[in-house]
Amino acid sequence: MLSSSAPSPLHVAIVMDGNGRWASKRFLPRLAGHKQGVDTLKRIVRACPSRSIGTLTVFAFSSENWSRPAEEVSGLMDLLATALAREVSQLKKEGVRLRFVGSRSGLSDKVKAGLAAAELDTVSNTGLELNICFNYGGRWDIVQAASGLAERGEPITEQTLGAALALSPSADPDLFIRTGGEYRISNFLLWQSAYSEFFFSPALWPDFTEQDLDAAIAEYSARERRFGKTSEQVR
Predict the structure, then answer these.
(1) Domains in the chain: ranges and CATH
(2) CA angle at residue 50 from 175 to 115, to 5 degrees?
């Protein structure tokens, strides 16, 4: 556990990468890795409040993931439906507010109903805000925001576009973590991560622990965030 005096990011975004590779290393079907990844997410969600993290945004299913084998996509949809049925009541008790960020296009009526019900069931919670990016892509997000503004005849500025993005009204993430040893952001939060601090973990997502989260926070806390200013100005 980090000391209470250590500065901590208020909003953490995570690309939960490595589920399939975790399963393959164990000669298991890829879906087994995704199921294990759900357990990891539950642990990280519960670790956030004690680390002063008020918002957690995770990349669960990208708009590009539709190109994966049909069996895996179908399994991920079933896994989401099952997780919602099992976990939402406990998340509600723990004060977590759920939001699903992304396009609902292409999702089954069952999945769409489950997402809406989970959001409604936790809408009054005031604890951790958990944004699950599902059927989400950063380019899609910018296009849908700009298109919406244009259709309404509103000016497109940094302020109006930012407010029209799917993650709004959540603040931009302070810390952006990607697990699995890859060094790219894969079309995740392209606009919102403009000034995020990046941390790339070699751990596959099912193996990612609270200690790995602490390592990311510690590195974040050691960095100087200038936002275009000089070191002398921020000091």
Answers:
(1) 11-223 (3.40.1180.10)
(2) 70
> In this predicted model, what pLDDT tens digit does every residue of 88-101 receive, in sequence order?
999 999 999 999 99
Q: Quote the pLDDT of residue 3.
A: 45
What per-residue confidence (pLDDT) applies to 72?
85
How far apart, in whole angstroms, are the C-alpha atoms of residue 169 and residue 85? 26
What's the half-sphere exposure (Cβ side, CA atoms, 13 Å) at 233?
6
Model confidence at 210, in pLDDT bands (50, 70, 90)?
very high
Q: What global pTM score does this model have?
A: 0.92
Alpha-carbon gap, residue 115 to 98, rounded angstroms: 9
CA-based nearest residue to 128, from 171, 89, 162, 92: 92
- Distance separating alpha carbons of residues 138 and 144, to the nearest angstrom: 10
As a whole number of Å, the CA-based R_g of the chain is 18
DSSP E strand boundaries for 36-75: 55-62
Query: Catalytic positions, please?
Result: 17, 65
Cα–Cα distance measured from residue 206 to residue 153, given in angstroms and rounded to the nearest whole number: 45
| 137-146 pLDDT, tens digit each | 999 999 999 9
Q: 3-state DSSP call for residue 99?
A: strand
Residue owning tokens 């930012």:
162
Cβ-based neighbour number of residue 37 at 10 Å: 26
Q: Within 13 A of 235's CA, how many CA atoms are on the CB side?
A: 5
Quote the tokens at residue 91: 């998340």
